Amino acid sequence: MFEGFANVWTPVTLARRLKGSGPLAVTVAGERLVFFRDGTGKVSALLDRCPHRGVALSLGKVTKAGCLECPFHAWQFDGGGNAVHVPLNPDAKRERLFATALPAREIGGLLWVFTAATDQPEPAEPQVPDSLVRDDLARTFIEVEWAAHWTRAMENMLDSPHVPYVHATTIGRFVRPLLKSDSTMHVTWEDTSYGGRTTSWIDTENPASGALAYLDFYKPNVMVLNIPVPKQVFRMHAICVPVKADRVRMLVVGARSFARLSLLNPLFNASNMKIVKQDQAVVESSFPSEVPPAADEVSVRTDRATLQFRRYYFEELKPSSAPPRRHLRVA
Ligand code: FES
Ligand SMILES: [Fe+2]
Fold first, then answer.
1. Are residues 168 and 235 in the same domain?
2. 79 and 155 co-located in one domain
3. N or C: less crowded end of the chain, CB within 10 Å?
4. CB of 52 sitting under 6 A from ligand 1
5. Which residues of 270-284 are buried (b: 16+ CB within 10 A; e: fewer)?
6. Is residue 91 assigned to a domain?
7. Is residue 72 part of a domain?
8. Could you give the C-alpha distances from 176 to 120, 166, 212, 279, in angstroms and in order?
9. Ligand 1 atom closest to Cα of 86?
10. Do 21 and 89 belong to one domain?
11. What are phi and psi of 28, to 5 degrees?
């Protein structure tokens, strides 16, 4: 299960797609999942496959008590995957008839899942960028899909040297005046508890000035761009969710401490959408679609951050897979 993307917490979609109690079908790294709210309103996730005859549970309905009812024979499962009602079979041993549950959360307007169905204790909580949850920030949300492998999208998001070229008419227009034909871009990388931070500057611009853009990488697939605005917070979060080979779901969350009126959200969203479209064109054209080992492409000094990601991908993530355990009790 979750080949190449196992045993990690990942945002998977915008929480607002889960209408009422659900259900909502979402594919993540080749696995079909179904989200719904249990009786307490808490988000739950199961494999979207009834243990009885393999029917998609997402075609069923959520009962008043917050159980997911299969559309075929109306078995009902709670958020932990336990069969709580098996019609016409009052003598069935229900403890053997469970669906597969995964740890799920709703944080910062996003649905999250831990990519393993295991009967081990609950994993540690996800590491979440503070700007996804701070009360004093206004946020905007975009969800789109690209025809690309998620690793190319992720590297694009961690790549600073493309900004003045791909984004010449958007965020890159502030960088272009700094460029001379013999300019040097400096790119640093620092490992952090959550992944890493990369900072970049051009020529002699003083990196200690505080007016720098930096990118945070939260393993396995979250990028946070800090856009320097004096005394304000202005961030763009880009989350690259693998759907299946050559398909990535891009979640883009803008966060700002100024102009917080929700009336202005469409403006900020439109500007982020323009940036996303500029990236989409180049990312979808990449060949091969999945990032290859570093030795298969040529690289230069300014590729520092993307090479760091590539190492993480090939050493930790790509070899990962989760055993197809059938049951997990979640709290
Ligand atoms: S297939 Fe789901 S209850 Fe029979
Ligand atoms: Fe970009």
1. yes
2. no
3. C
4. yes
5. eebeebbebbbeebb
6. yes
7. yes
8. 52, 11, 15, 17
9. 3
10. yes
11. -135, 120
Residues 109, 151: one domain? no
**Is there a single domain that holds both residue 269 and residue 147?**
yes
Contact 222, 9 (CB under 8 A): no
Residue 222 included in any domain: yes
pTM of the model: 0.95
Termini Cα distance of the chain:
22
* Residue 182: half-sphere exposure toward Cβ, Cα within 13 Å: 0
Which tens digits make up the pLDDT trace of 6-65?
A: 999 999 999 999 999 999 999 999 999 999 999 899 999 999 999 999 999 999 999 999
Query: Considering its fold, how many domains does the chain have in total?
Result: 2
CATH number of domain containing 110: 2.102.10.10
**Tokens for 321?**
């897979």
- The residue from 80, 114, 148 where one domain ends is 114
Please state, in angstroms and rounded to a whole number, the distance separating the CA atoms of residues 230 and 208.
14
| Any domain includes 326 | no
> Quick check: CB of 72 below 6 Å from ligand 1?
yes
Ligand 1 atom 1 nearest Cα: 53
Q: How remote is the CA of residue 170 from the centroid of ligand 2, in Å?
A: 10
Which ligand 1 atom minimizes the distance to the CA of 54? 1
Question: How confident is residue 207, by pLDDT bands cut at 50, 70 and 90?
Answer: low
Which ligand is located closest to the Cα atom of residue 162? 2
| Residue range(s) defining the domain that contains residue 274 | 130-317
Q: Among candidates 33, 28, 36, 38, which has minimal Cα distance to 8?
A: 28
Residue positions counted in the chain: 331
pLDDT digits 0-9 by tens, 100-129 = 999 999 999 999 999 997 666 779 999 999
